[in-house]
Write a structure and sequence with these properties.
Layout (H helix, E strand, L loop, with lengths): L1 H134 L3 H48 L11 E5 L4 H7 L4 H10 L2 E3 L6 E5 L3 H17 L4 H30 L6 H9 L4 E2 L2 E2 H19 L3 H10 L14 H11 L4 H8 L11 H14 L8 H16 L4 E7 L4 E6 L6 H18 L7 E6 L9
Parallel strand pairs: 7-8
Antiparallel strand pairs: 1-3, 2-3, 4-5, 6-7
Helix pairs in contact: 2-8, 4-6, 5-6, 6-7, 8-9, 8-12, 9-11, 9-12, 10-11, 11-12
Length: 507
């Protein structure tokens, strides 16, 4: 048993020693390999160092060669520069000699000019003395006369240039104004006035006419008394004609008549009831009408009082032109003209729409409609530009902004375009007579004639009582009197004619 243990122990010791010997042998082999690798690396490093050294020597030789070449080139360039500098120096010396010679020549010429100037001055003085002796004038008087002549020539030239500039500017401004006005008038529809003095109301049967007349005419008398309109029954079959010069009363009468016919009960009490309800309804629709007019023009933030007055303008006429239609058209014209002239379109449009709003006030109002409208606009919080344009568009007050004259122009265009307004023959004749009477009122006037449908008045004056300067003053006086006393659309031209005719008869 002990023998076996010793044997096993011997085997274990042998195996352990054998494995240690093998590891040591492995370490020796690995160390040998590493030594060989180190030697190989050393040889490769020596070869690389030899290659690097040879490459560095080769590069150094190339750089030395390049440096030597550059030095040689710079030497050649320096020689050329030195040669050029010598040539420039020689040229400068040559030019200096020539300049000295030219300077000497110029000094001689200057001396000659001084001598010639002195000789000319002496000659001029001698001739001036001769001229003064011949003219018997002193030197100061001759100088003053020459200065006065030059001043007069300069003034004449200045007047001529000023006249040419003014004529050219006037032509250009006139052409531009015509262009703007034509473009503006073409951009609005030339609506023809279709306002009538009557309105047809259809009836279901001829029997209705008798009921409208009533017993002994009491119904028709009550209707005409309450509405202020005339009811014409027998002229038109199948309808009744309501006639009235006031469009509001005519509209109330027509609406009340339609309701009476539809209701069927026609007697004085029902007539009064329907007339009153129609009157209230039309007044209630005024705000809606005014609001629609403002919205169509793009005008917002308007006081309710202004909207009501604006709606009432549809029932007002100015020489048979609907005032609301005229106000809307004037607003469109003001906006277009303002856009062409680079002004505030909103202010111009508001002024055009509200310019006749004073006409919507009660008839008892004795203030001019322009001033009354301006007062209402001020209470409604409108801007100062709009208020002044409205109150000055008939020249009751002066203009403070450009919008006043702009509104006057648009108002005149809307009022005088073809078909805008109509007037009676008697009214036209009255305006012509008043125009001629104003012209004949002044001293020295022989006769006056209104022509061009009242847009021009020709005044013939006595050549013995009125001279040329007084003729211009007389034309201005007639023009201002017409502006103060007459109301007229558009403009009136005043032409004063003065001529001298001498007649002799030989017998």
């Amino acid at each position: 048993m002990v023998f076996i243990v010793y044997a096993v122990l011997s085997v274990v010791i042998f195996v352990f020693m054998f494995s240690r010997l093998r590891k040591m042998r492995g370490y020796e082999i690995e160390a040998h390999h590493r030594k060989q690798e180190l030697e190989i690396a050393k040889r490769e490093a020596e070869l690389a160092a030899r290659d690097i050294r040879s490459q560095a020597e080769e590069n150094a030789q190339k750089r030395i060669a390049e440096a030597e070449k550059m030095i040689e080139e710079r030497k050649i360039a320096a020689q050329k520069i030195e040669q050029t500098a010598m040539e420039v120096q020689a040229r400068a010396a040559e030019l200096s000699v020539k300049l000295d010679e030219r300077l000497v020549s110029l000094r001689k010429d200057e001396e000659n000019l001084v001598a010639e100037k002195k000789s000319l001055d002496e000659l001029r003085e001698r001739y001036e003395n001769k001229l003064l002796d011949v003219a018997k004038l002193s030197r100061e008087a001759a100088r003053d006369a020459a200065v006065a002549l030059e001043i007069e020539n300069a003034r004449e030239d200045t007047r001529k240039i000023r006249r040419e500039i003014l004529e050219k500017a006037e032509d250009e401004f006139s052409m531009e104004a015509h262009r703007i006005l034509i473009d503006t008038m073409q951009r609005i529809a030339p609506r023809v006035n279709e306002q009538d003095m009557s309105e047809l109301v259809p009836i279901p049967s001829e029997e209705t006419k008798g009921r409208l007349i009533g017993r002994e005419g009491r119904n028709i008398k009550c209707f005409e008394q309450v509405t202020g309109a005339t009811l014409i029954i027998d002229d038109t079959p199948g309808s009744v004609l309501v006639s009235c010069f006031d469009p509001f009363r005519r509209r109330v009468a027509a609406l009340a008549l339609r309701r009476l016919i539809a209701d069927g009960r026609i007697h004085p009490q029902s007539i009064e009831h329907f007339v009153k309800s129609s009157h209230e309804e039309l007044l209630g629709n005024a705000i809606e009408t005014g609001t629609k007019a403002c919205e169509d023009l793009g005008i917002f933030h308007v006081d309710e009082r202004l909207l009501e007055l604006l709606g009432k303008l549809q029932f007002r006429l100015s020489i048979n032109q609907n005032t609301l239609t005229h106000s809307v058209e004037t607003a469109q014209l003001c906006g277009i003209l303002a856009s062409e002239l680079g002004l505030n379109v909103s202010i111009a449009t508001r002024a055009g729409l509200f310019h006749d709003i004073g006409k919507a006030l009660d008839a008892e109002n004795e203030t001019a409609h322009a001033l009354a409208g301006a007062r209402i606009l001020k209470q409604a919080g409108e801007s100062a530009e709009v208020i002044n344009a409205v109150e000055s568009h008939h020249r009751e007050v002066g203009h403070t902004t450009i919008y006043g004259p702009l509104l006057m122009l648009a108002d005149s265009i809307s009022a005088t375009r073809p078909g805008a307004r109509s007037s009676t023959r008697e009214g036209y004749a009255e305006r012509i007579r008043n125009l001629e009477a104003i012209a004949r009122r002044f001293d020295g006037v022989i006769d006056a004639f209104a022509i061009q449908a009242g847009h021009e008045v020709r005044v013939i004056v006595s050549s013995e009582d009125v001279n040329d300067s007084e003729t211009r003053v007389l034309a201005q006086k007639i023009r201002m009197t017409i502006e103060d006393e007459l109301m007229y659309p558009g403009k009136i031209r005043v032409v004063v004619i003065r001529e001298l005719r001498v007649t002799e008869e030989a017998l």
